[in-house]
Design brief:
Number of domains: 1
Order of helices and strands: HEEEEEEEHEEEEEEEEEEEEE
CATH class: Mainly Beta
Number of strands: 20
Strand content: over 45%
CATH architecture: Beta Barrel
CATH superfamily: Porin
Radius of gyration: 33 Å
Strand order of the largest sheet: 3-4-5-6-7-8-9-12-13-14-15-16-17-18-19-20
């Protein structure tokens, strides 16, 4: 009997344990199902939140259909590990050997020079605007911000565009070009003397273009900047070296900036098609600062300020006839400039000088890789129109490909000082995507 009781007790215990295990398994399964339902509800809530955020957000277009911006937040950002919004990056190296018969240019000539390393960052902020930054780095002087601006190209009505920041002012054919984009080594001498090379400023510039019939296009721009400022990186001539022109500050500045102390600029240009490959472009530009302020000290070391008027007007014309299939053709550019500026060394004796100058450039393309060209220029000096300078030269360019270019150039300079001769070998390398738009 005891044996039977023991056996029955064991059977009952096993049944109880089995029942408990079954109950525990059912509870766990039920809890898993509840968690899955809760997780699904949370995911649905997140999706609805994403739809609410992106419903009214600016939309991009893909294959003709609008698509929501990427990202989980209202600003369109994702995570710190996401590189979808990285800008396009480029690095340009401009290496030059410049030789000359000048006797007083040990640090500049008859030597190898890393004239320019340009680092560019370009990317779209959103469907309405892009941001562009170009840093200029020199072997000896370090780096500077060459350009940094927002370009609003898809937000204003019609074909209006807006540039805001520090930028190359829209003036003439060559002033706004970066040095490595020139058809020759240096900016024309007249631009260096009248504008300081590349005319740059910090401000706002409005653009607009429109069609004139079926074969013509008109484009104009107008802007306001803090002042007329030049930036030159030339190798030869009377303005050689890297320097900035500005409104001057011999002593510490003081006082209030007024509206007439700003600088104003504008340009209008039209392009007319003459055939399948030929076009003619004509343009007019102006840069004007009614009262550029400089600061001086009198004989008792008391600071005072004087205002000076500055005005530069330019006319330019370009003939272009290049066969896109073969790369053969010719480009001819001519530009004339009138400068009217006031100068003073001490703030008391002020001279008003009117000067005239111009330059020509022609380039014949023998194919996609080879071209030859010639340049010539003459001008009256902006500070003393009785002094005149001129130069002429020739160059040959070999574009190994779109990222690799070699150029040989020779130029002769006739200046108030000793005449001089220069020869240069230039090697320009482009790493990454690069481009500065249409040279209007």
């Amino acid at each position: 009997m005891p044996a039977r009781s023991t056996i029955l007790l064991m059977v009952w215990t096993c049944a109880v344990v089995s029942s408990a295990r079954s109950q525990t398994t059912e509870d766990l399964q039920r809890r898993i199902e509840e968690l899955e339902l809760r997780h699904s509800a949370e995911v649905d809530a997140l999706r609805e939140e994403l739809r609410a955020v992106t419903r009214d957000a600016p939309r991009e277009v893909q294959d003709g259909e609008p698509v929501p911006r990427r990202g989980l937040s209202e600003g369109g950002q994702t995570t710190v590990f996401d590189n979808l919004f990285n800008p396009a990056i480029s690095v340009i190296g401009d290496f030059v050997f410049a030789g000359s018969d000048q006797d007083d240019a040990f640090d500049r000539l008859n030597r190898f020079t890393l004239r320019d390393v340009e680092v560019g960052f370009v990317g779209r902020v959103d469907p309405f605007a892009s941001y562009q930054v170009y840093l200029h780095i020199e072997e000896e002087t370090g780096f500077e911000i060459e350009e940094a601006y927002v370009f609003v190209d898809d937000a204003l009505p019609d074909t209006f565009e807006l540039k805001v920041g520090h930028y190359s002012v829209d003036f003439g054919k060559f002033s706004a070009l970066h040095d490595h984009d020139l058809p020759m080594l240096d900016k024309p001498q007249v631009l260096q003397d009248y504008l300081g090379g590349s005319l740059r400023g910090t401000g706002v510039e409005l653009h607009h273009w429109t069609g004139l019939g079926d074969t013509s296009t008109l484009r104009w721009s107008a802007g306001i900047t803090n002042g007329i400022q030049g930036d030159a990186h030339s190798m030869f001539g009377p303005a050689a070296g890297h320097h900035h022109s500005h409104d001057g500050a011999d002593v510490e500045s003081f006082g209030k900036r007024r509206f007439e102390n700003f600088a104003f600029h504008g340009r209008a240009t039209a392009v007319v098609e003459l055939g399948a490959a030929a076009t003619v472009q004509v343009g007019a530009s102006i840069a004007y600062q009614p009262k550029a302020v400089r600061f001086f000290e009198d004989t008792s070391m008391q600071p005072f300020r004087r205002s000076f008027e500055q005005r530069v007007v330019g006319l330019d014309a370009t003939y272009r006839n290049v066969d896109q299939a073969t790369g053969r053709g010719v480009v001819l550019v001519g530009e004339a400039l009138w400068s009217t500026q006031e100068f003073s060394n001490d703030g008391f004796d002020v001279s008003r000088v009117g000067a005239f100058g111009g330059h020509l450039c022609g380039e014949a393309f023998l194919g996609r890789q080879w071209s030859v060209g010639a340049t010539a220029g003459a001008f009256e000096h902006a500070e003393d129109a009785s002094e005149r300078s001129s130069d002429y030269g020739a160059f040959a360019t070999w574009k190994v490909d779109e990222f690799n270019r070699l150029r040989l150039e020779a130029r002769r300079f006739q200046d108030p000082g000793p005449d001089s001769f220069g020869i240069s070998m230039q090697w320009t390398i482009i790493l990454g995507t690069h481009g500065h738009g249409i040279p209007w």
